[in-house]
Amino acid sequence: MVLWIGTSWKMTKTQTEAIAFASRLRIGAAAGGWPRVQPFVVPPATAISVVRDALGPDSPFVVGAQNAHWEDVGAWTGEVSVPQVADAGATLVEIGHSERREHFGETDRTVNWKVRAVLRHGLTALVCVGEPAEVRAAGGAREHVLSQVAAALDGVPGGSRVLLAYEPVWAIGEKGREPAIDEIAEVTQALDAEYGGVMTALLYGGSVSTANARDLLHTPGVTGLFVGRSAWDVNGYLHLLRIAADVAQEAGEVAAATVPR
Ligand code: 13P
């Protein structure tokens, strides 16, 4: 089992700050890294290339972009395309974060177009889904999320490089509420049952911290974490990587102990 542990910096960090962060990651990787963990960082577009450079050659870190347009080139002022973020050094593109759905008009339809563009260029798509508080209160969380994923993956062949991130809107950001494991397990189990064989990993995101990461990684179906605030300080992110490496090692030992001889 490999655990994907990543952070989106959202609209934070200058290039200087990004380089300082990435330099610490490079030192951590050189000191032995995090076995059975796939780490990734998603800087703002302005810092993708400097982060890639600061991580150095052969880095275990995947570098991502927070968004990309569905068209490759053209008159789309303010947008960046998949070939452009790939040119800057990204090999993963985050699509459909709830902040983009809420503030920038992303819909299930544009999310699908973007996912197809990312895959067409051979990058990994990280598709974010999650229900708002009122949908959860009305008992519709599972249905809402399954329908978002079905729309996002419409026409996408099984076996494509797709990560799903389940991020309930009510759990994200400063006003977010930390979820109970039961609340998210209901959705992650359903996603695992439906897409377990076809997606690369299923991440949980929203108020992840060093205090709850271990429990969250034991939630049924969850094989990674997607972290905002708790990982914006490099020490917080390094701590989360350490926790994940410990969880992955324990899981490996349990698996080895139960293999029939
Ligand atoms: P927080 O960890 O700050 O709640 O943000 C999570 C998130 O939006 C990751 O995409």
TrEMBL record:
Gene3D superfamilies: Aldolase class I (3.20.20.70). Its EC number is 5.3.1.1. InterPro entries: Aldolase_TIM, TIM_sf, Triosephosphate_isomerase. It is an enzyme of class 5 (isomerase). One of its GO terms (cellular component) is cytosol. It is found in: Cytoplasm. One of its GO terms (biological process) is gluconeogenesis. One of its GO terms (molecular function) is triose-phosphate isomerase activity. It holds the Pfam family TIM. CDD domains: TIM (cd00311). Homodimer. This is Triosephosphate isomerase. It comes from Micromonospora kangleipakensis.
